[in-house]
Every structure is written in structure tokens, then in C-alpha cells.
Amino acid sequence: MKQYEHPPAEAFQLTAILHALSDPYRLSIVQKLSVLQPQPCAPLQGDRPKSSVSHHFSVLRKAGLVRTLVVGVTHMNSLRDAELEARFPGLLKTILEAAARSEGLPAQV
Amino acid sequence: MKQYEHPPAEAFQLTAILHALSDPYRLSIVQKLSVLQPQPCAPLQGDRPKSSVSHHFSVLRKAGLVRTLVVGVTHMNSLRDAELEARFPGLLKTILEAAARSEGLPAQV
DNA sequence: TGAATAGTTCGACAATAATCGAACTATTAT
DNA sequence: ATAATAGTTCGATTATTGTCGAACTATTCA
């Protein structure tokens, strides 16, 4: 049951977090996790091949957004929301609110 | 006195904003502007060549973060903070606070 | 043990983005 | 008109990211 490395909260880098969330697919993963967590990778996969999904989760983990717990054969992902809140208060919540706002609008012309 | 194109606030894309701010140099420009605006490009230039600076300002403009007003020979930049606040409440402020927090810490090991 | 499941790692390729010199544009000052 | 100033645009180069198939690992189940 080998587990992942996760950076400690003190090592979170704002620019890495912003970069991680600047990808629409990764942002959508974080949005879905914010509603239901923890959750394995599979339901968040969309139509992408597993190797891409794995790559994006790795980016999210390295930025400190997601913690992945290996439980048997599935990898359970959750947001590190408490740690993020302690390190960068309001950041995740505000970005998630903004993400919710930018949906359901007429396609960007 | 030709002026720039700036996207309307309704067209702001969260992911473009996050991407723009995920670059440390651009983030530092936005930080400096938040303290003193409007401001020409030159004082924000650092040690970079003009063409790079120009590129980064273009990214910031296209994301909707910065408005550039051509005044005579200088280009005065300011944050589009009111419009950003209307479109994505709290976003810019929270990111700037996070940026302030992530400074003055021991180098990331 | 063997097969199924869930996801990772590797490696190659494509796409996007950053960097920077050189030439250019617009405005102001002489 | 000429020159100086402030910044842009172009084009080439490099660096960083994203994508995806194929092979691999770890765990569970039969």
C-alpha cells in the first residue's frame, strides 16, 4: 500500500496553484471534488485516456491541491481544503465561486 | 493616439486570468500595480528586455487584468479591479493577499 | 496462480508559451 | 526635419506542457 508524496502546506506555491487551476480540465476536477470527496480518479476521467488523467492528477498533487490516498486498488482523491485555507485564506473558495460564475454563460465570442 | 483593444468584462475567462497570474513576473506586475496605479511599463520592467515586457503586458491585457491607456508617448497601465470585482468577486483581492503571504518566506526547499 | 481492476510510468510527439534581438511606430521635444 | 522616448511587432529559438499508446505495478477476487 505505497502512498504518494504530498508537499507540506508551507511549501505550497501560489503560482503553481494558479497554474494547476488554469487548465480547464484540472479546474473541473477540482470543482467536482469540491462537491463530492473523496473520490477515485475514474469518475472524474471524462473521455481522456488514463495516462492523461494521471498526469493531471500529478500536477494537482504537486501543487498541493489534491491529496491522494491509496485504498486498496483505488486512489481516493480529496481537496486539501483545510490546509489551503490555512496557507492562502479564501483562495480556493473564491476561485471555485468564480468558476461557478463563468459557467452557464453564452460561449465566449 | 491609437488605443488598445480590451475585452469586455463579460468575456473574462477565469482560466485565462489564472494562467496570466501563474507567471511570477506577471504576478509581480499586478502586485506593483495594485499599490500604485496607473503606471507606465518602464518602472515595472525589471531587467527584462522591452519585447518580453511587452509580451507579458499583452497577456495581462488579453486576460482582462490590465487596462492600458496610451497617453502621449507613455502607456499607462492600471488594474481593471472594479470590473474584475464585478465579474469574479473577491478573486483579485484574494490572490493578491495570497501573493503577499507567499513572499518573505524561507526559500522553497 | 491467474485474471481483472485502477492507476502509474515511460517515451515520443504536438501544442503552447517564454525569451530576446532587430526593426518598426507613434509621440514629444529641439 | 531630426532625434529621443516608450513601447510594439516580427521572427527565430528554446522551454514547458499536454496528449496518448504501450508496458508496468499493486491490489483484489475467483
From TrEMBL, chains A, B:
Which molecular-function annotations from GO does this UniProt entry contain? Answer: DNA-binding transcription factor activity
Q: Where is the HTH arsR-type domain?
A: 16-93
Short name of one Pfam family: HTH_20
Tell me which domain of life the UniProt entry assigns to the organism this sequence originates from.
Bacteria
Q: Which InterPro entries match?
A: ArsR-like_HTH (IPR011991), HTH_ArsR_DNA-bd_dom (IPR001845), WH-like_DNA-bd_sf (IPR036388), WH_DNA-bd_sf (IPR036390)
Q: Under what name is this protein listed? A: ArsR family transcriptional regulator
Organism encoding this protein? Acetobacter cerevisiae
